[in-house]
Amino acid sequence: MTTAPTCPNPAIAAAVTLNVCRHYHMGQNLIRAVDGVSIEVRSGDFVALLGSSGSGKSSLLNLIAGLDRPTAGTVIVQGNDLAQLSREELAKYRLHTVGMVFQSFNLIPSMTVKENVELPMRFAEIDRSRRDQLSREALERVGLGGRMAHRPSELSGGEQQRASLARALINRPQVLLADEPTGNLDSRTGAEIMKFLREFNQLMGMTIIMVTHERALAEQYAQRMIFLADGKLVANESSQSAVTVAKESAS
Amino acid sequence: MKVYDLSELAVRNLRESILRNSLTTIGISVGVASLVAMLALGIGLQALAARRLQRSGLFDTVVVTSRRDMRNFSREQELSGPSPAESPALDETSRLKISQLPNVVEAFPDIRFATELRYQDKPHLTLVAGLPSSAKDNDAFEGMQGKFFSSDVAPEAILQKKFAEELLGRKALPGTDDTSVAELAQPLLGKELVMRYAERVTQPSQEDAGAHSRPDPGDAAAHADGERGAAYSVISRTQTLKIVGVSDLDPDSMRGMASARVFLPLKLVETLHVLQPSDLRDTTHMAGSTPTYSRVSVRVANPKYVQPVEDTIKKMGFNTFSIVDATRGMRQFFAVLDLFLGIFGSLALAVASIGIVNTLVMAILERRREIGIMKALGASDGDVQKLFFVEAGMMGIFGGIAGVALGWAIGRVINLGANIYLRRQDFPPEQIWSVPWWLVIGAIVFAVLVSLLSGLYPAARAARLDPVQALRYE
After folding, report:
1. Residues of A in contact with B391 (CB under 8 A)
2. Closest CA to A32 of A233, A180, A183
3. Distance between CA A244 and CA B15 in Å, rounded?
4. What pLDDT score does B220 carry?
5. How confident is the model at residue B283, as a pLDDT?
6. Distance between start and end Cα atoms, chain B
7. Residues 6 or more apart from A147 whose CB is under 8 A from it?
8. Alpha-carbon distance A243 to nearest alpha carbon in chain B (angstroms)
9. Does ipTM top 0.95?
10. Second label for B415, Cα 20 to 30 Å away, from A136, B116, B167, B328?
């Protein structure tokens, strides 16, 4: 645990967690999904959260996303102390500060691709004409200019994930949170999505926190890897040096 | 979220499960329809009753008498207003003043006198009354044979059935049906009657005109009149009248002319200057050249104006009488009837509102994931809540509109059925059902309110949904 940052600095960090815990009860048992994790993600970082299933990596991401509230500890993203925010403010935070991509795409099946991309802008009360223009641009950027009027079910997995990427970025968030974005895709389309993520990270300076269980993917694209097991931080390394540590923890 | 976006999303969601939402909406519309049909029936019956009463002329009439008429003087009247001696006379000037009051349709003198009529040289003594031309619309003359007076001054007469029987020397046997009016009218219409009466002729001189035609108390009045310098004499005259109609009206059911058997046009009667009992009373106080009336009937535009008009006339120093309490009782009865009909109608709407709750709660379960996605994308609790609220409201609007249309159709069918029945019973068709515009608007607004109320719980539940839970399972 010596690798954990002892004194995270929220001023320069995009996202910081301090001893954050998410415990919940399931029957008589207390489940420690996240148990005292402190991490720091600097602005412009591309960080991979790694761990086996049940390690708490998705729970940690949900805490950073403001979808869930920690039972203890602090989460600060872009200067927002999430524990201090009201439900209403937390919704605004999800709307403007972070964008989310999911393993199962989570596009609304009854809406066309374009309507799906426009949805966050409806919540942000953006004008119709501007919404139309921005959603077209965003879909063209991910190569879906010709599929705007299609329903998600008519699209391939890769296309659906690209649509959900366009949706996640439509309100220009500073932090992109991706929960196993390639989990439902074959390796080729997965690589395609990862290239988009890298592009956003490098060309637009976007901070990316990605949950994955594929080490290879993380090593290839992320600048840093954070390993979690049983809700606890195991290792926090840059992707090159992380290899050895990870090997030790894996054995 | 903007209202437009909310509505757009709501319509989309409603279309997504079109069958279930349509069924729910139909449920609301059936509820609204039953409410509308019930209330329309209540309102229609009330309007029918009010129309009937209005035409009967009983409830839109104020009868005005002079306070000088001590016969009608009561303790209550003694306490209010001027003393009889100081009160104004009920003459033509007063009548004009009353007829110009707001909401007064007409004010006509109630002229009645007992006199002798000759038919085929056989005398008959009966009560004669003047009838204003507005009485034509009175439903009391609905069953009349012949026609109404050709003009307001025509020397024509309408006979009451009983008097017609008397003229023809017929008598209905007790226990059997009355002779039909048509049967009586046939030999009488167009025939002539000769009326003998006492005319009051104003005398400019102080001297007794000496027109003692008959043993009439009028001569005494003329004597007592001396000191003012104005007098009148009483002259016996005759007037030939043509029988134009025979009415089967019940003499006791009518305003003003109650118990009269022969009716003449009011203007004609006025020009005859028939001696009135009031003339005698007035001679002791004043014997101007203008005659006074014993009673003036005031017709108002609507029964609801009876009270204010009555109050105004009372302030002028006259006694008044009206049958206003009957309509009040009727209105009360119909208010209760409407309330009960409304409650029965609302029961169906209450059942429908449970349907809304059910549909929306189902929708939450079905759209659990969608709600989770929207929340993850930045939708606030309020956005989700409003979305469900708008959906409930829209079902209310659609259900309300469809329900009003359905209720209207049901009412039409009831009306049609009732009229077929009435026709079979030989009654004229009636509008027993009425949908005023406020009921249309009110029913739709009520449907929306009930729907919103039903949406309250589902919307709150949807808003509280935990996005992590909602997104967890595929």
Report:
1. none
2. A233
3. 56
4. 47
5. 56
6. 27
7. A113, A139, A154, A155, A159, A163
8. 31
9. no
10. B328
- Identify each DSSP E strand in B133-285 by its residue range: 145-146, 156-160, 192-203, 231-247, 262-265
Lowest mean pLDDT, pick from B152-156, B168-172, B386-390, B419-423: B168-172
Q: Is the dihedral of CA A41, A42, A43, A48 positive or negative?
A: negative
pLDDT average, residue stretch B67-72: 61
Q: Which residues of A touch B373 (CB under 8 A)?
A: 106-108
DSSP 8-state assignment for residue A53: T
**In contact, A54 and A47? CB cutoff 8 Å:** no
B359 pLDDT more than 60: yes
- Interface A-B: count of C-beta contacts within 8 A: 71
Residue A62: list chain B partners with CB under 8 A. Answer: 468
- Listed in sequence order, the residues at least 6 apart from B69 whose beta carbon sits closer than 8 Å to its beta carbon are B278, B281, B294, B319
Please give the Cα distance from B149 to B141 (Å, whole number). 12
B306: enclosing H helix or E strand: helix B306-315
Query: If you average pLDDT over each of A34-48, B119-133, B173-187, which comes out highest?
Result: A34-48
Per-residue pLDDT at B314: 82
> DSSP string spanning B226-238?
GGGS-EEEEEEEE
Q: Is any Cβ of chain B less than 8 angstroms from the Cβ of A119?
A: yes
Structure-block tokens of residue B300: 């108002």
Question: Looking at beta carbons, which residues of chain A come within 8 Å of B374?
Answer: 108, 119, 123
| B374 shares contact with chain A (CB less than 8 Å) | yes
Q: What share of chain B is helix, strand, coil (3-state, %, to 5)?
A: 55, 20, 25
Query: Are the C-beta atoms of residues B439 and B39 closer than 8 Å to each other?
Result: yes
Angle of helix A113-123 relative to helix A128-141, nearest 10 degrees?
A: 130
Nearest CA in chain A to B368: A108
Contact A122 B12 (CB under 8 A): no
Is residue A172 less than 8 Å (CB to CB) from chain B? no
For position B341, what pLDDT does the model report?
85
Average pLDDT over residues B326-331: 70
Lowest-confidence pick of B16-20, B242-246, B292-296, B347-351: B292-296
What are the residues facing B113 on neighbouring strands?
A: B128
d(CA B383, CA B360): 16
Over residues B223-275, the pLDDT tens digits come to 444 444 456 777 888 888 888 888 876 655 544 445 678 888 888 888 887 77
Asked whether residue B83 carries a pLDDT value surpassing 90, the answer given is no
| B318-322 and B61-66 strand pairing | antiparallel
Q: Among residues A224, A219, A186, which one has the least CA distance to residue A41?
A: A224
Identity of the residue numbered B299: R
| Cβ pair A210, A46 in contact under 8 A | yes
